[in-house]
Amino acid sequence: MTDSVSPVRVAVTGAAGRMGRMLVAAVAARADCRLAAALERQGSAAIGVDAGVLAGIDAAGVSVGDDAAEAFSAADVAIDFTTPEASCAHAAAAAAAGRAIVIGTTGLSPEQHGELEAAARDVPVVWAPNFSVGVNLTLRLLAQAAEVLGEDADVEIVEMHHRHKVDAPSGTALRMGEVLADTLGRDLDLVAEHGRSGRTGARGRERIGFHALRGGDVVGDHTVVFAAEGERIEITHRASDRMTFAAGAVRAAVWAAARPPGRYDMDDVLGLR
Ligand code: NAD
Q1: 20 CA distance to ligand 1 centroid (A)?
Q2: What is the pLDDT of residues 131-141, one digit of tens each?
Q3: Residue among 21, 24, 1 at smallest CA distance from 11
Q4: What are φ and ψ of residue 271, in 5° steps?
Q5: Which of 61, 65, 155, 198 is the most buried (most CB within 10 A)?
Q6: What are the pLDDT digits (tens) for 154-167?
């Protein structure tokens, strides 16, 4: 007997981007989904080019277009790693088309997150600042460390990314800060300290420091330092290949295609909730 479940149809937005090309390859690598559409911004040189060829794999038989409504109607789920403005527009288009959407774009304002919430009333919306399984495990380890160390340790978050990254600190660093602040019973907005310079005075015990390094082709490094009297713990995650994010996002897309409307994150996808 053959398996009668048809593959999940996926639309990839930002298909010519660093992540978009990885996503096209990650969709092609799985038997349970297939590329149904690929989108780029209007005027992009990638319009009309085969998405597989752009991704450096075999031709996918799908040319890159610029019409979100048309692309989403041909798919069961969209995956979007673009810009905050484009992600909000794509979430609204997914809601209008009745299609699930997985969003990995970082640097969204609170208002823009509100736009994702609005779309999530109509369709499944998965947003995560980091789709790697390793980072989501690291978040768990951070909560455990903060719980044990409590007020005894000063907490600093150091991240490094490639020179093209346009937001700082990274969405992952901010998520780490939220997990630490929640565990320690602090309000991140009140205790976050971004970089230091000049006569800063002594470090406030309750502070959570963020430091963003940029350069070269670094895919994504995050270290959280817990510095106590007489000892120091450092928990580090290093991503060396964007495929780790792309594979996680495609896993999330296959999961989301069969969910009821709602706002989800990687904990839901991985069953960690
Ligand atoms: P990139 O600049 O290489 O790619 C973005 C692509 O989106 C570009 O090709 C651009 O032309 C396209 N685009 C912009 N507006 C569009 C529109 N209206 N319609 C269709 N396409 C449009 O950037 P990148 O390195 O691929 O990163 C994209 C986003 O993903 C960033 O916010 C980054 O921080 C985030 N990111 C998240 C994760 C994660 O796991 N959540 C991992 C890596 C990167």
Answers
A1: 7
A2: 999 999 999 99
A3: 24
A4: 70, 30
A5: 155
A6: 999 999 999 999 99
